[in-house]
Specification:
Elements: H1 10-28, H2 32-43, H3 50-57, H4 61-73, E1 77-81, E2 89-93, H5 98-116, H6 121-145
Antiparallel strand pairs: 1-2
Length: 146
């Protein structure tokens, strides 16, 4: 028997998620990166800078910057600055993006329903706990390597 590989189904999970959100991207005429940024900001309101997105989602700074600019041009995002601080732009979702965000969240819910079908609430809680520990391990390693 092969050793346990927790990532052996990673590509299938990524493909499923891409299918779920891909429909929204086509419907709303936005890129996957743009939708990912909108959903990140909507789902994580305490992390509202491009730097947060880059560091937490491990995305390329140039891709995030370009996507934020396009979202601003479409009226989906606006930048706000704190008093006396013109360096740090806080990204705020505009009303024009509300339907795309709602559709994206629905796609995320559909994705989770498919993944977690047949699991009990206790099992789902255990999965959340395991995922949290794995994420903590990843972050600790990434900080050490930086």
């Amino acid at each position: 028997m092969l050793p346990l590989n927790p990532w052996e189904h990673q590509n299938a999970v990524k493909t499923l998620y891409s299918r779920c959100v891909g429909e929204i991207c086509e419907k709303r005429d936005i890129t996957r990166m743009e939708l990912d940024i909108l959903l990140f900001l909507a789902n994580n309101p305490c992390f509202d800078t491009a730097t947060d997105i880059v560091e937490i989602r491990y995305l390329s700074k140039s891709q995030v910057s370009a996507s934020v600019k396009l979202l601003e041009e479409r009226g989906y995002l606006k930048k706000e600055y704190g008093a006396g601080n013109r360096k740090t732009a806080h990204l705020k979702i505009c009303e024009a993006a509300a339907e795309a965000v709602a559709d994206g969240r629905s796609a995320q819910e559909k994705f989770l329903e498919i993944l977690l079908k047949g699991f009990s609430e206790d099992e789902i809680e255990a999965i959340r706990g395991y995922n949290s520990r794995i994420f903590d391990n990843l972050n600790a390693y990434m900080r050490e390597e930086s």
